[in-house]
Amino acid sequence: MIMVSISLEEANKRNYTYPNIQTILFDLDKWSKDKAIKWLNKHEYIHKYHRLTKNQRRFMQHNPVENAEYYSKRLPNGIVLVFQYMPIQRRAEGAGIFDYFKKGIERIAPLRKEGILPPNARALLEKIKDETINSIVVVRTPIHSMISKALNVISLGKFNELVKRLGYDKLFHLSLHINGKYIFHKIEVPTLEQANPVKSNSEVMPVQITRTLNIGKFIDTTRQYMGDAKFSNYNAATNNCQVFITSALQANGLLTDKASNEIRLFINQNAEDIFKQLPQYVGKITDVITDIGARANRLIQGEGIHTYKNIKYIKPQIALAKKYKIPVVSIKLSPLKNKKYMIELKDGRIIHYGHPSYEDFLIHKDTERRARFLNRWKNNKHIDDDNSALFYSVRLLW
Questions:
Q1: Comparing C-alpha atoms, which of 334, 335, 349, 327 is closest to residue 395?
Q2: How far apart are CA 47 and CA 63, in angstroms?
Q3: CA separation, residue 67 to residues 2, 6, 99, 271, 316 (Å)
Q4: Which of 38, 67, 302, 375 has the most CB atoms lying inside 10 A of its own CB?
Q5: Residue 42: CA atoms inside 13 Å, Cβ hemisphere, count?
Q6: Beta pairing class for 79-85 and 69-74
Q7: What is the pLDDT of residue 272?
Q8: What residues contact residue 71 under an 8 Å CB cut-off, 6+ apart?
């Protein structure tokens, strides 16, 4: 039986990822049909679509996609993996350029759970959460000229025209300067930093503190007021830094006095009106760029447990893999939320292993904890199954 060719559009509907293993070839002089099927079953491949050529058995795994390109990788045991891939421009034609990029970055770097700050900000907050707020200053700083120029270029000159038509000389980034030491604001994600946001071209407006607040309560009240999704996510037109700062002050009861209208006018520019009047693709581009920024933040800082600090433990694991004669190609950080690492094996398998919420022996070096872990799992049926996560956790992490 042979798999039929499908269109790129149909492949995208089926959520094909690239490259994929399109066909697995077995040398006839080394592999009988039964032996090949046994190998395929063991490695969780399909064997329904099978045909013979002069020198090989061919087991198709994915439909061939129109206009796809191919490359192969020969394994030392008489097996050849044939990979199917699509050049970026062709993939984009089938899915839409923005959908393609969004799917790509979702696989590489899933977004952080909504409602939480990045790890660096959380670490700072833990230290200062009980500090009483004595002063808050709203700081507005013109957005970088390169950003304005980029928006103007992609909108074919309409961005600057609209900004002027709506009565603005320039657009601003807004932040709160708390106690003269900290910045609380939203870029692509909400964050807290120990720094001074006031630049030479910044404008400032103090907020009257009318009630007793500490920094931890101030931020959590903002989150509850906005809801986790709106607190965490960003949209240049409808959920930007201006909305974030207004919400923070409103949530904490600091926009109720006579000066409130003046503060609101200082904060708010109608960015939504600007983006409504720009070509639709401009908003899509800014959303994609912001999404990449948020995911890059997640990729670099993680959730606070599963972070890039784990990179230093990859090299020792490769050494252990060689010690245990595991046919390793590479070990990388896993993109899955519930796993630390992923190992690629010479037969093409990829296994994700290690729980990000727990330390392992490579980290804590506690021999008693190690003994308890190994004793707890020693009778598990998967401990010697090289398709299981436990197999690699035991040998490479403990």
A1: 327
A2: 13
A3: 18, 10, 20, 42, 42
A4: 302
A5: 10
A6: antiparallel
A7: 45
A8: 19, 82, 83, 85
